[in-house]
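wait is this the right file?? whatever heres the structure
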């Protein structure tokens, strides 16, 4: 029976597919860490109170990258180059999601509108990250090698999502509500396309590594297209709603260390 758990188990049990999975994840998390660090450094004067939270966000992402690299090292594996078609973070930027790297590499302060855009984009991508880690947590929270890492990263992603909700609501109350809803909708529709394309590319690579028969690969591809069709029709709306989270001030403290991984 083809299920999410059996699929992930097959990928995680094979060294080559596990190495590709962790390499893709580590690269994306490390890129997110750099982006947040640059945003924190360039926060406009009127929003400097946000800088420590953005710094914490970036520190968490860096930590996640180290965790995925440590998981590979524990099995005696080295990272592999990330195929461009599987690079979720790079493809998001190319599709206009997130602040342009040229802007982040400059030394000019960002505007309040830039910060609103960053938070709206993060709200969408953190929704995806939270859901993906919740799926892994559901099936592998008690895994002897992966469980602790999965639980830690999942908790962090939930914190990131809560932070985005709370800060976006603050900006909405300050008069940015219309812009926030527009950016959220545009970002969500772009993100689901990128997620579909990356999912298809990742599954194609995994299929070649694991020797999946053509029929199985076709079923998985059909499933990915079906998810996209649902998200294009209605599922994207879960990415644009805003509500005050139960976890208030989720990034208000220092980043939690992961000495057992890093």
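ok assuming it is, sequence goes like this
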């Amino acid at each position: 029976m083809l299920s999410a758990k059996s699929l992930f188990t097959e990928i995680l049990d094979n060294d080559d597919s596990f190495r590709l999975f962790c390499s893709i994840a580590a690269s994306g998390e490390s890129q997110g860490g750099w982006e947040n660090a640059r945003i924190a450094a360039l926060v406009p004067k009127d929003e400097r109170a946000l800088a420590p939270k953005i710094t914490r966000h970036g520190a968490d992402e860096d930590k996640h990258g180290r965790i995925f690299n440590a998981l590979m090292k524990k099995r005696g594996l080295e990272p592999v180059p990330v195929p461009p078609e599987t690079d979720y973070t790079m493809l998001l930027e190319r599709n206009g999601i997130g602040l342009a790297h040229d802007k982040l590499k400059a030394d000019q302060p960002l505007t309040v509108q830039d910060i609103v855009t960053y938070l709206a984009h993060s709200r969408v991508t953190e929704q995806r990250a939270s859901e993906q880690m919740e799926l892994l947590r559901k099936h592998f929270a008690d895994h002897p090698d992966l469980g602790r890492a999965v639980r830690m990263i999942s908790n962090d992603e939930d914190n990131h999502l809560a932070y985005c909700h709370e800060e976006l609501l603050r900006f909405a109350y300050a008069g940015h509500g219309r812009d926030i809803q527009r950016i959220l909708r545009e970002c969500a529709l772009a993100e689901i396309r990128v997620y579909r394309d990356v999912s298809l590319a990742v599954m194609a690579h995994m299929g070649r590594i694991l020797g999946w028969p053509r029929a199985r690969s076709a079923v998985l591809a059909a499933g990915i297209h079906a998810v996209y069709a649902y998200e294009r029709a209605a599922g994207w709306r879960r990415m644009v709603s805003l509500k005050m989270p139960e976890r208030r001030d989720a990034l208000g403290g220092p980043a939690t260390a992961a000495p057992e991984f890093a």
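The chain has a mean pLDDT of 94. so i think its the right one actually
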